[in-house]
Design goal:
The chain has 350 residues and is an alpha/beta fold. Helices cover 29% and strands 23% of the residues. The protein has helices at 9-23, 32-37, 40-49, 60-69, 84-90, 99-105, 130-142, 164-179, 192-195, 324-329, 334-340; strands spanning 4-7, 26-30, 54-57, 74-77, 93-96, 113-118, 146-152, 186-190, 207-208, 230-235, 238-242, 260-265, 282-284, 287-289, 291-292, 300-304, 313-317, 346-349. The longest helix has 16 residues, at 164-179. It is elongated and about 80 Å long. The protein binds pyridoxal-5'-phosphate. Pyridoxal-5'-phosphate binds at residues 30, 32, 78, 153, 191-193, 209-213, 219.
Length: 350
């Protein structure tokens, strides 16, 4: 295959082991969006090999896919849903988005495990005050609901200057009050950026809830212990000597200054390589070469030398130029590149 995506299961297993070591907690693995677009079934299988049993996703259909293929897993669908029969049938836990949601659906929630979400500032889902939390507790008692989980999501953990600390305090205050009156089996709050802080205030959380770390990428500074799981290669399909003062590709965005040996790659933004990829070189036979011009839908142009021939392998991600480096370009970020990559490309799992 000309353009090939290789996903390394051993890298994922090593990242899981490192997260266990660093957190000393159980893992609720976030595998939303097709496991960060690495393949839901393959990644859940790999994570289970590494000892993970608990999974969190955004949508119900993702949870159903996991429970259908991995009945031994525990699965939490975090977005508010109203497909309660499916939740019961597949044994899927649901996130509580608000007290109003519990009130509206109280009669339909029997037998379904529920995780109460606390909103500390993202203002997406979750109860926003102790009064609202108490209203949920009261409804839970009244309707004999299975309130087994408590969680939050910290939106400022990856911004050094932002006031993450007071959001942690806000969660702890509500969690302490609830825990005095109710026993939760699952308490989870730390995403990747939060778990490396090893915040002692969050010691009462028995699970961490990372996503991107498990796949070897960092939402914050580079982590030398992470092992990138994705490698993407293509090959040179044509080489052309272009005279000085000529354009390559559509438009006039690139003009050769000197005589340039230009290699054509059969890959572009249509394959989900983000345009910010242009800022980083590619690797051919162990040497780096710059991408010139823009990325086009199905093609990319690289300036090469006489060491490069048609058919040579070109590394787009791997060998030290990694998806994390996209974040450094400032024009895109790592998870965006992960999610953008097309499933039409050939994928191989090793
Ligand atoms: C995506 C997500 C996570 C995981 O975040 P990472 O930064 O990938 O570790 C955790 N919790 C919620 C609610 C999420 O949406």
């Amino acid at each position: 295959m000309r353009t090939l995506v290789t996903i390394n299961r051993e890298a994922v297993r090593r990242n899981v082991a490192s997260v266990y070591d660093r957190s000393n907690k159980e893992i609720f693995a976030v595998v939303k969006n097709n496991a960060y677009n690495l393949g839901m079934r393959e990644m859940v299988e790999t994570l289970m090999d590494a000892g993970v049993r608990h999974f969190a996703v955004a949508e119900m259909y993702e949870a159903i896919e996991i429970k259908t293929n991995f009945p031994d897993s525990y699965c939490l669908a975090m977005n508010p849903v109203d497909t309660f029969d499916d939740a019961r049938k597949y044994g899927i836990a649901l996130g509580i988005a608000s007290s109003e949601w519990v009130e509206r659906h109280a009669d339909e929630l029997s037998g379904i495990e529920l995780h109460l979400k606390v909103n500390v500032g993202m203002n997406r889902f979750g109860i926003s005050s102790l009064e609202e939390a108490e209203a949920v507790l009261a409804l839970s008692v009244k309707h004999d609901l299975k309130l087994t989980g408590l969680y939050t999501h910290f939106p400022l953990a990856d911004e050094p200057e932002a006031d993450h600390d007071s959001q942690v305090d806000a969660f702890v205050t509500i969690a302490d009050a609830l825990r005095a009156r109710h026993v939760f089996d699952y308490i989870h709050s730390e995403n990747s950026a939060t778990l490396v802080k090893r915040d002692p205030r969050l010691a009462f959380c028995n699970y961490v809830r990372p996503g991107i770390f498990l796949f070897g990428y960092s939402p914050i500074e580079a982590m030398d212990w992470l092992v990138p799981s994705l490698r993407m290669t293509t090959e040179v399909v044509m080489i052309r000597d272009v005279a000085p003062g000529k354009h390559v590709g559509y438009g006039t965005s690139f003009t050769t200054e000197t005589a340039t040996r230009v290699a054509m790659l059969p890959v572009g933004y249509g394959d989900g390589v983000v345009r910010a990829r242009k800022a980083l070189p590619v690797i051919i036979n162990g040497k780096t070469y710059p991408i010139i011009s823009k990325l086009f839908m199905s093609h990319t142009f690289v300036a090469v030398d006489d060491d490069v021939a048609v058919g040579d392998e070109v590394v787009l991600y791997g060998d030290g130029i990694e998806i994390d480096d996209i974040t450094r370009t400032g024009a895109a970020n790592n998870s965006e590149q992960m999610c953008a990559r097309s499933w039409r490309l050939a994928h191989r799992y090793i």
